[in-house]
Amino acid sequence: MPLALLALAIGAFGIGTTEFVIMGLLPEVAGDFGVSIPTAGFLVTGYALGVMFGAPLMTALGTKVSRKRMLMLLMGLFIVGNLLSALAPAFAVMLIGRVVASLAHGAFFGIGSVVAADLVAPDKKAGAIAMMFTGLTVANVVGVPLGTLVGQSVGWRVTFGIVAALGVVGLLGVAKLVPEIPRAEGVHLRHEMAAFKNAQVLLAMAMTVLGFGGVFAAITYIAPMMTHVADFDDGTVTWLLVLFGLGMVGGNLVGGRFADRALMPMLYVSLGALAVVLALFTLTAHQKALAAVTIVLIGALGFATVPPLQKRVLDQAHGAPTLASAVNIGAFNLGNALSAWLGGLVISAGFGYTAPNLVGAGLAAAALLLAFLSAALERRHNTPSTVVTQAVPTDQRADVHQ
Q1: Is 65 exposed, middle or buried (0-12, 13-18, 19+ CB in 10 A)?
Q2: What angle (nearest 5°) sits at the alpha carbon of residue 289, between those of residues 286 and 295?
Q3: N or C: which end of the chain has fewer CB within 10 A?
């Protein structure tokens, strides 16, 4: 694999850390600012919405800039946002910092996916995308647990200061290792926008929203769920996040490998199994060992969908994939925002901390139905038209063969 993929993975590591570390620190942040846990959940929702809107906006603004330079600018924005979060004197200011950092997220992964795919042979594109996303998944094994531990021991502000430093490392990595790749001639913003006329692109994005939203419905409130329902100690949440991260790493690599061979079957299996596991989490969350195993499976099945969904968007975008790729990253985070909001609603309504798991199961099942619909439409589109030879006179058919 090219060294440029390592640079992209480094940037992804920093972004993944800041995205997911807030899950384990919600109680600390809520207590510090004097807000409820569902209110603190807006730090997840706000970040996700920032990614959703920032992905197309930042990608569009970067259409006149080389992809390498745009990746560097995005890492700079990420650094600023995390410093603002670390120094925030009030909850509203921290929310603003989260949104500022999130504006870099979607465009970085969107542009990075295109760069990663361009660096390898056509039959290895999903694997290259998965390699970049490995930085995101490894963040959940190393960055997020350590960030959670630091936040619980020293203070969550220190955690976000360290995340800003990770952004500096990512910026230097991109500057040093990512090559200057010329933009395709004749591809402009109008050309990029044309990809959204493709029903398959839109269906893939809808699958992204619903499928990955199912994961976040459970994981957003993992800290209170595990401490109040499974009766884990607060410090154990760190290790549960490690398990989630290990599942993500494995699922991402498996998804990337098999997406290059059988993309749609990979989606059927991962989305179907994810819906079942999330539904079962409502029961397994009451028993420590079963809860831990379920958390690993949610991470693995959720991230097994990432490379195939991202590759499907790139394949269907027909030569102008940058904006579509970035918007699909926004779609992942729209799913995060939707599920975090729905999860907060069911908790606030008094259904308990396990109720978001059923919300997630429903979202994943809906994504599976869209996958079947997408495949059916594709088969119909690819079916050759039937030629009625009987309508052609015999002598004319003979002439054709002469």
Answers
A1: middle
A2: 80
A3: C
| Structure tokens, 377 | 């439409």
Q: What is the pLDDT of residue 384?
A: 56
Task: List C-alpha distances in Å: 212 to 34, 35, 86, 365, 378.
Answer: 30, 27, 28, 11, 23
401 pLDDT higher than 50: no
Say how many C-beta atoms besides its own lie within 10 A of residue 168's C-beta.
Answer: 14
Q: How far apart are CA 370 and CA 274, in angstroms?
A: 15
Q: Which domain holds residue 302?
A: 3-179+195-380
So what's the pLDDT on residue 385? 46
Residue 191, pLDDT score: 67
Query: What CATH code is carried by the domain that includes residue 256?
Result: 1.20.1250.20
Backbone angles phi, psi at 184, to 5 degrees: -65, 135
Q: What is the pLDDT of residues 37-91, one digit of tens each?
A: 888 888 888 887 888 788 788 877 777 778 888 899 999 999 999 999 999 999 9
DSSP 150-207: HHHHT-HHHHHHHHHHHHHHHHHHHHHHS---PPPTT--HHHHHGGGG-HHHHHHHHH
Q: What's residue 121's pLDDT?
A: 78
> Which pair of structure tokens corresponds to residue 152?
């619980």
**N- to C-terminal Cα separation, the chain:** 53
Residue 402 lies in a domain: no
**H or E stretch covering 331:** helix 321-348
Contacts of 156 (CB under 8 A, 6+ apart): 25, 28, 29, 32
303 inside domain: yes
Asked if the structure places residue 395 within a domain, the reply is: no
How many independent structural domains does the chain possess? 1
Mean pLDDT of the region 358-385: 88
Report CA torsion sign: 243, 154, 16, 210. positive
CA angle 39, 45, 47 (to 5 degrees): 120
- Contact of 78 with 14, CB cutoff 8 Å: yes
